[in-house]
Amino acid sequence: MVEELENILKDATLAISNAATIxxxxxxxxxxxxxxxxxxxxxxxxxxxxxxxxxxAGKALNKTRTVINDALDVKVLNIQEAxxxxxxxxxxxxxxxxxxxRVGRHxxxxxxxxxxxxxxxxxxxxxxxxxxxxxxxxFDALNTPADHPARNESDTFYFTDxxxxxxxxxxxxxxxxxxSEPPVRIISPxxxxxxxxxxxxxxxxxxxxxxxxxxxxxxxxxLKGTLEYLLHSIxxxxxxxxxxxHFFPFTEPSFEIDILLxxxxxxxxxxxxxxxxxxxxxxxxxxxKSRGDNNYSPEEVSGFAFGLGLERLAMxxxxxxxxxxxxENDTRFLQQFA
Length: 338
Ligand code: DAH
What we know:
The protein has helices spanning 2-18, 22-33, 38-44, 53-89, 107-121, 135-138, 171-179, 220-235, 281-291, 310-318, 331-334; strands spanning 125-126, 132-133, 164-165, 184-193, 205-215, 241-248, 251-261, 269-279, 302-309. It folds into two domains: 2-89, no CATH class; 107-337, BirA Bifunctional Protein, domain 2, CATH 3.30.930.10. It has eleven helices and nine strands. The radius of gyration is 40 Å and the shape is elongated. By secondary structure, the protein is an alpha+beta fold. 3,4-dihydroxyphenylalanine is lined by residues 168, 170, 210, 248, 251, 275-277, 305-307.
């Protein structure tokens, strides 16, 4: 029987090495190792062998089976490899690939996250407030009297119950001071609404980023340092920034901040990006009245506040000339920012 097995192994090895396709190898596997295969049939005869012959034949049988099986596996791999190599040779790597859709963040989201990241590095945390506001939070508490033009019917979206769509995010300054003790250092991004005619520089809903810092001894130098750091983070260290005196009811002194835009081939131009100032003592007094304490005493604390327009930042950053592009969701426009 041992001799018989040796012959089978020889034949099988030869047949395997002559096989040229995986199909042929599959057939050989059946012929030798299948249920009715040559080796299997021999194995069935084992039981008829004598005591002495059995272990020797058993060993030879196992060896035959393993060697044939391994030889088949190796040959299959070799053939597969050769086929792969052939296919690879036929691939033209200079052909254009299948384009991947490019995804990216909306320019306003990019400005938002860059601003928020820079301000968080300076210790500001996020705060929020409702977009439907009381007149008190939007105006009175912010030292904006009833006859101020910002409160005009024609500039503001009022509800019949007297509330309104907030005209700025400065409302969150008030809500924060009502609900927490000094020191406070918050930023609050969000939507603001004006009854503006929509054109290339105006929308009726836009995005602001409000900031407020109240503590002992907060000074104009802190305001300048904070906003310079913020704007340099967004527009680059070499961007020139100026603080131009202005008026806001809720800050005194107040400023508008301009940055110098130096577009290639054009005259450099100062462009306004934010309003800011030192919190007006009247704002603290109004907050204290509503809190029923004197924790925001103008004698003890001072603060600065600022409000940035996020659309404005995006328009400057990428030279976008029409603000409406930012809300039209035209992918031909948006893909440029991916
Ligand atoms: N709320 C102002 C606006 O919407 C922007 C602003 C100016 C916010 C000065 C401030 C500030 O916090 O101090 O036009």
